[in-house]
Description:
The chain has helices spanning 35-45, 60-65, 70-76, 86-94, 108-114, 116-119, 140-151, 213-220, 231-240, 259-273; strands at residues 4-8, 29-30, 33-34, 50-55, 96-101, 124-127, 131-134, 154-160, 170-176, 183-191, 202-210, 244-248, 252-255. By secondary structure, the protein is of the alpha/beta class. The protein has one domain: Spore Coat Polysaccharide Biosynthesis Protein SpsA, Chain A, CATH 3.90.550. The strands form 3 sheets. Strands 8-11-9-10-12 form a 5-stranded mixed barrel. A two-stranded antiparallel sheet has the order 2-3. Helix 5 (108-114) crosses helix 8 (213-220) and helix 5 packs across helix 9 (231-240). The two termini are 36 Å apart. The structure holds 1-O-phosphono-alpha-D-glucopyranose (G1P). The site of 1-O-phosphono-alpha-D-glucopyranose has 13 residues, from strand 11. 1-O-phosphono-alpha-D-glucopyranose binds next to strand 11.
Amino acid sequence: MVKKCLFPAAGYGTRFLPATKATPKEMLPVLTKPLIQYGVEEALEAGIKTMAIITGRGKRAIEDHFDISYELEHQIRGTSKEPLLTEIRSLISQCTFSYTRQVKMKGLGHAILTGETLIGDEPFAVILADDLCTYKEDNVLKQMIEIYEKYQCSIVAIEEIPKEETHKYGVIAGHLVDNTDDTYRVTDMVEKPSPEEAPSNMAIIGRYILTPDIFEILKETKPGKGGEIQITDALLEQAKQGKVIAYRFKGQRFDCGSVDGFVEATNYFYKKTKG
Ligand code: G1P
């Protein structure tokens, strides 16, 4: 059973400066909802109620968001504005949130390792909130949990990207398993390779299910691309033992870590609300 979801949320969000100077990038809203709330909703819909959030300096707004604001509740009680808080109230009542800080920015792998005390010795999901995913039926994390239940090893979500964009992603190589057309046993993975070095055009997006042995591997993982401890490098160790599955998810993903992707997501959700 996957019962916990980790949200690495310590990064600076420099691509959105000056908006992210005093506001966490995870709190930037697509329409009226912050990115991280979409992520928490996805986890909850996938059956996960324990949210573990890796924060850093300047990220307190995230904790306040997932808490009751008595003053605000008092002000809007009984007014036409009250329904605007229905969704977030419901999340707060159904989930528990715990936090720990990443004191130094040493990469995504390091951020995930920082979560060890919150996760313990069990498989867990990871959502990178700036990859916003939509779906018609089961959301991406729910799809991945089904794959995890079958293979009982680490799972990464992938999508095909234009070859010239491989330098933005972790890129995998693998072979299809069990007569599927969307599930690969990973044989290689490289963090942000040039198009020439990339083993394929299948890129990892910000959804993972990780088995807890990843923590011991991360402790031994040396800084890689960009001098940072990379989750991709730690996963490669599991992949060498045949223990990583890549799953081409059903749905659409917006790269809300970039201004273009953020605007696309905003337009998409705006059109959706207008029917
Ligand atoms: C991280 C990972 C990368 C992955 C990407 C998905 O990179 O290191 O392997 O493909 O997330 O969004 P970042 O976008 O944090 O640079």
